[in-house]
Amino acid sequence: MRIKREEPGPGQLSVWDFPRPPALVQWHEHVVVTFAGVVVAETNEAWCVLETSHPPTYYLPPDAFPPGGTRSADGTTFCEWKGVASYLDVVAGEWVAPRAAWTYPTPTESFAVLRDHVAIYPAAMDSCTVDGHPVLPQPGGFYGGWVTPRVVGPFKGTPGTQGW
User: What's the structural domain count of the chain?
Assistant: First the structure.
């Protein structure tokens, strides 16, 4: 299958220029996440994981969340680059988004800066914004990438992309 790469415009990046293994960047963008009508996270210190064919996955520092804003959830998964991920519920008062986030309590050495940072599935939230721009979730439901005006695809996760 031949992939037709979208050409980035001014100020944009193509996910096809992102490396594998992934890279870490910190753009110091203003990230705001709302759930159940409440701001559940806000930061300018998110780390982004950039991997070929994926929109960036944003990892927010623990202090971006209010006390009790996340809690442990069942399940783990393994990433060949980052290690074992633990899942989290996102909590806003009486409202809970089950397994809407994940973290790496003991990431691999190459991704040590992500220790205890939290990635959120944007589809599970009311909204996520980056510098005021609404975030679209990475297609497919499995991956946690954030599609913003900064990036162009095509993105892994759409039908027919499993083998990418």
Answer: 1
Greatest C-alpha distance within the chain: 47
Asked whether residue 53 is domain-assigned, the answer is yes
**pTM of the complete model:** 0.95
8 A C-beta contact, residue 87 and residue 79: no
Residue 111 tokens, joined: 């991704």
Please give the C-alpha separations between residue 43 and each of 31, 37, 39, 72, in angstroms, as whole numbers: 5, 18, 11, 21
Residue count of the chain, please give it. 164
Q: What is the pLDDT of residues 58-74, one digit of tens each?
A: 999 999 999 999 999 99
For residues 30 and 130, the answer to whether their CB atoms sit within 8 Å is yes
* Sign of the dihedral through C-alpha 34, 9, 56, 27: negative
The string of pLDDT tens digits covering residues 109-144 is 999 999 999 999 999 999 999 999 999 999 988 899
Give a yes or no: residue 40 inside a domain.
yes
- Tokens at 95, concatenated: 């409202």
